[in-house]
Design a protein that fits this description.
The protein is α/β, with parallel strands linked by helices. It has helices at 20-28, 65-77, 96-106, 118-126, 157-160, 176-185, 212-220; strands at 4-9, 31-34, 50-53, 81-86, 109-113, 138-143, 165-170, 193-198, 206-211, 229-234. It has seven helices and ten strands. Helix 5 links the parallel strand 6 (138-143) and strand 7 (165-170).
Amino acid sequence: MSGFVSFVSSGPGDPELLTLRAAERLRTAEVVLYDDLSAGPILDLCPQAELISVGKRAGRASPRQAHVSRLLADFAATGARVVRLKSGDAGLFGRLEEEITALRAAGVTFEIVPGVTSATAATAAAGIPLTRRGVARRVQFVTGHDVTGALPEGLNWAALADPNAVTAVFMARGTFAGLAARLIAAGLPPETPALLAQGVSTPAQITERDTVAGLAARLADAAPDPAPTLILYGALAG
């Protein structure tokens, strides 16, 4: 028997922001392996399924990636309809490639259901566009930490310090003070607009406007917060 795996993007957390296909796959799933950030009301759409938490959160014990990939292949081998529920968009900073590689090696067929990213959801929540005609010539996405939780090495600082771009920094809270210092040293004006978005589309949503320097100063002394945090900076609309 051979099952099928749907990589379903859960978006930022509000079930109403799921695509129609994502909702349908959840309603017909027999097994759902979900991220921590995909837990909550979205799982109410699949009461018939076996639910397995495989999420990874900074500072917490998490299942190894090889174990998650093996679970997907093993459940599919029973002939089950499997959903791998990923937060945001499945293809963005979500280890999708490792899981796809494992399924291909096991001969398991799959599909990818795209979804709303937290970057687009954050600017929508703040009531501003993600791009600005004639001002923001590009949008760039970057992760705020590597597998150790530290600021990633080898970043393109010239590109990230371009004030005419809009940059979205995912998982940014813990390293933004250090990131901002490097950006300012690379030429980014300290007064560049910044937006902190936390828990977007959920009851715990926070969106706050600041400058890069101001936000970095606030976060440098802030207590750790497990809530998903995105920071955007650059040519943001007022």
